[in-house]
Amino acid sequence: MTVDVPNSSRIVGTSEGAAFPAVYSNTEDDVAAIVCGDDYLCSGPESSLTKLSKKLSEAFEIKTCMIGEDDHLSKETKILNRIIRVTQDGWEIEAGPRHGELIIKEPGLENSKGLTTPGFDEPVNDDDPELEDWRATKFRSVAARANHLALDRPDLQFAVKELCRSMSRPTEGSWRKLTRLGKYIIHRPRLVLHYRWQDPIAELSTFSDANWAGCLKSRKSTSGGVIKLGDHLLRSWSKTQTNIALSSAEREFYAATKAAQESLGMATMGRELSMNLKSMIFVDASAALGVAQRHGIGKNRHLQTGALWIQEQELKRVIRMKKVVGSENCSDILTNNVSREILEKHAAGMNMEYRGDRAEKAVQLHLIQRKVRQARAEINALEASRVRSKQDEPIRSDLIGEFVDNTDQVLRKSMMKSNDVPKMNINQYEKQVCRHEGSMVKWQQGHQHLH
Fold first, then answer.
1. Full strand arrangement of the beta sheet holding 22-26
2. Would 251 disulfide with which of 11, 205, 210, 287, CB 3.0-4.6 Å?
3. SS3 for 241?
């Protein structure tokens, strides 16, 4: 069930400054709720959710939608720009289509052909000209939308990460990357994450990978990671490493440290939901695995802090580390631009499915938006017909300066001065205006001829 509560309301409370929403559970009614701002996502028995909805409705104006497997419940809803639906096999989540459509529309790619990959490797060109101010502004706007969309689309995360690195000084090369991303979204407009029914799982599987000196300009590496609970994708990331790795073992070790931190954070969230989860880290580099599993730092003094921390966590059995074959490491798509075959293979490995049609909920929202645009166009045409006469222009210009904050009064007074109402109604209207402004004496002096 999703609940929209006014911004000024705080029922359960939020986790201020946290990287994830606050989590609330009520063992009496067996209801768990995730709070994000003024939106609540609750899970529990239908009777408990109905009770919660009635309780909230007594104090607030809310919109609710209860979804579930039973026939009388909805099968699909939208919350936080995500579409959630229930099927016979489990649950599905996908990003709303709005941001993807705007990423295509803003650069003018509506009539372009789609591409099979979201990014490409381009040689560094120091003479690449910077974008003009208006194009730079549009680039930042579209890149920010892409960054939001990538939260629910792991196939976009590496390309979007590279795109956002040039936010401060976008160049023509940055614009080419942006158009490439838009053309890929044309080819792959939807990515659905499947959460099929599975037996209870007590271990988080975290996959870690990194490229070596992947950035041709700064020679920094990229860490990529995927956290799964069984077959369910919980989190993925693509992040440029802050340090310049001197070897492939070092860059893999940095990535493994990042993966361990993320995995422990996810396990902590699981405890809030009464789930006791262990962490297993999968890496495909034997050298990084050897550094993490041995005791002591050896000759790697520059890795001292991270090495000792991750060794300590494994010694306490808080985390465990294991080797995985590189071709089976699904986090590979988060560290570099890969081919279409590899992208589709790892997308399937993370239980993601590409679709080309529009979601039912997205179609409904699209129809509503079209009706709103049609209604606004009719209103604008009606207002334009009222004031299209040339003799009204001086009157409207004078009134706009006088009543700039009240459009309704401007239109009414313009109609009155255009002889659309009797003279006496004009005087009554001016009297009301003067009374509102506290200048009745001025009105009486200007209208003594009426007495």
1. 22-26, 31-36, 39-43, 2-4, 63-65
2. 210
3. coil
Structure tokens at 167: 């936010």
Could you tell me the end-to-end alpha-carbon distance of the chain, in angstroms, rounded to an integer?
Answer: 67
- For the record, the structure tokens of 335 come out as 């560290």
Q: Could you tell me whether strands 63-65 and 22-26 are parallel, antiparallel, or unpaired per DSSP bridges? A: unpaired
Q: Which residue type does 321 have?
A: M
Buried b / exposed e along 381-400 (16+ C-beta atoms within 10 A): eeeeeeeeeeebeebbeebe
Considering only CA atoms, which of 184, 146, 185 is closest in space to residue 162? Answer: 146
Give the contacts of 173 (CB within 8 A, at least 6 positions apart): 122, 125, 128, 166
Confidence (pLDDT) at 405? 45
Q: With contact defined as beta carbons under 8 Å apart, do 194 and 347 qualify? A: no
Neighbours of 416 (CB within 10 A): 19
The percent of residues above 70 in pLDDT, for the chain, comes to 72
Q: Tell me the average pLDDT of the chain.
A: 79
| Integer CA distances (angstroms), 324 to 11, 71, 228, 318, 332, in order | 45, 43, 15, 20, 12
Residue matched to tokens 């990014």 = 119
Within 1-90, residue ranges assigned H as helices are 46-57
Number of helical (H) and strand (E) elements in the chain, helices listed first? 14, 15
**Helix (H), strand (E), coil (C) string for 154-212:** HHHHHHHHHHHCCCCCCEHHHHHHHHHHHHHHHHCCEEEEEEECCCCCCEEEEEEEECC
CA pair distance 337, 429, nearest whole angstrom? 68
